[in-house]
Amino acid sequence: MPGRIDNSVPPPADLSIIGLRGVPEIEAGDNLVQVIAAALTATRYEIKDGDVLVVAQKIVSKAEGRSVLLDEVKPSSAAETLAEEVEKDPRLVELILSESSEVLRKRPGVLVVVHRLGIVLANAGIDASNVRDAGHQERVLLLPEDPDQSCAKLRAGIRERFGVDAAVVMNDSVGRAWRLGTVGIAIGVSGLPGLVDLRKRPDLYGRPLQVSETALADEVAAAASLVMGQADEACPIALVRGVPYDRREASARELLRPANLDLFR
Amino acid sequence: MPGRIDNSVPPPADLSIIGLRGVPEIEAGDNLVQVIAAALTATRYEIKDGDVLVVAQKIVSKAEGRSVLLDEVKPSSAAETLAEEVEKDPRLVELILSESSEVLRKRPGVLVVVHRLGIVLANAGIDASNVRDAGHQERVLLLPEDPDQSCAKLRAGIRERFGVDAAVVMNDSVGRAWRLGTVGIAIGVSGLPGLVDLRKRPDLYGRPLQVSETALADEVAAAASLVMGQADEACPIALVRGVPYDRREASARELLRPANLDLFR
Asked: Chain A partners of B124 at a C-beta cutoff of 8 Å?
């Protein structure tokens, strides 16, 4: 009834997250814009201007052919030695080292490194779960070569296909110092700032805020991870609606604490 | 029209977050259940069974009278010495030390400690922003004495007032190792697990998952923080709907990595 306010209907939520279900197994060379289009149709959702599309690192890595057959990896002698020390597969250690710029901590079962992308990650973010076996062979999945670039390409593809300007965030579930459990973080972004600077905004009493910057992209990544699931629920794409953000050029590198400002390396 | 499926209406979002706006300035002794009830009425939302109510640490601390006048703090000589070293107000350093069990890192402007609650925090989570000045006097706000207990009380109050079983999470925005920007984390929980164990669930190919536990409460805290804002938007309470969780007794202490398993202290 136009002109009447229906008080029984609550206003829309400030933020909503829709998991795109029924995404098929992704293979190297798959076009993720087509995958997203099919999933949107199946879910009966439309992507809108200002939405944030969050994609799991895993499907981007698969589409970009970043899966590696362990049998084809030749460990260096350095990898062999380190593998013995940390009780890991030398082929996996070889891959971890080749993906990293520095080993920060090591102990049996654990290798925490600075990934070549600058992110501090256990095992360089290399994942052995949910990667299809080719005839019982062991495969692992590396991070995409350039996650920001992958996000930018997806964003451009979405603009072309749907005529909307949506931001794209690539998330991954990672461990942390001090706290147990993994949380989603942003390893790539396009069109959405990694960090939001609150320094210019006063608090409720007009004083400058002490806490100055919010890791916006990491919070979006964590929120999306709540609906994306991690195990047998195949829901690697989520649509986040209602995040206020400046549409500026951005990089997930904004979120990296420079080593000289990091007291915990 | 009952009996007909309207394909133009998309299905509900998997997860929605509603910020409760118009929450008044909280004073010591305020009843937060009443505050929540008033905010729900004003927002035209109902709290439902299975919802997760996220409350900002700041309003719980205020309601519990955890604000301290800096002029009433007498710094010890240890606090005086440390304050000079890190170039901070000795009264603030006295409070930080009294709230902490261990100083992990120090340098000018920064004191990273293990809070008596076990959480690793800069400045013991003590906040000087958005605390009302009483006649130009400097006030700061300590964390609640027992955030899990505060959440349990709120949950019981909500059950009594609204007749629903909702979980409660208390969040705070904190800095991290390795990454810039703050993210919301859970410093107290009731009725919602801090950690969700995925070890028993196979991945898409039936193999056990490598990454075993998700920090569910931290991801909920980060998601809520996206709508709660931090500066001049007074939105310290959010309703998160659609999080799947086991309704079990829980504690935010589940999320603390034991010191002997922490390679970054």
From this structure: none
User: What CATH fold (topology level) applies to the domain A14-64+143-255?
Assistant: 60s Ribosomal Protein L30; Chain: A; (3.30.1330)
- Which residues of A are less than 8 Å from B13 in CB distance? 13, 16-18, 241
Put simply, whether the predicted model's pTM sits higher than 0.95 gets the answer no
A48 close to B (CB below 8 A): no
CATH homologous superfamily, domain A67-142: CofE-like domain (3.90.1660.10)
Chain A positions in Cβ-Cβ contact with residue B44 (cut-off 8 Å): 7, 10-11
pLDDT above 90 coverage of chain A, percent: 74
- Tokens 């195949």 belong to A234
Tokens of A97: 């080292």
Q: Top-level CATH class of B14-65+143-255?
A: alpha beta
Residues of B in contact with A110 (CB under 8 A): 263
pLDDT digits (tens, 9 = 90+) for A63-120: 999 999 999 999 999 999 999 999 999 999 999 999 999 999 999 988 999 999 999 9
Contact B213/A at CB under 8 A: yes
Q: Do B10 and A183 touch (CB under 8 A)?
A: no
B262 and A46 within 8 Å at the Cβ level: the answer is: no
Q: What are phi and psi of A226, to 5 degrees?
A: -60, -30
In this prediction, residues B102-116 reach a mean pLDDT of 95
| Residue count of chain B | 265
Tell me which long-range contacts A172-176 makes (C-beta under 8 A, separation of at least 24). A172/A56, A172/A57, A172/A58, A172/A125, A172/A143, A172/A221, A173/A225, A173/A230, A173/B211, A173/B214, A174/A119, A174/A121, A174/A122, A174/A125, A175/A122, A175/B211, A176/B176, A176/B177, A176/B215, A176/B257
What's the pLDDT at B21? 83
Q: Which of A130, A205, A219 faces B183 most closely, judged by CB atoms?
A: A219
User: What is the location of CATH 3.30.1330.100 in chain B?
Assistant: 14-65+143-255
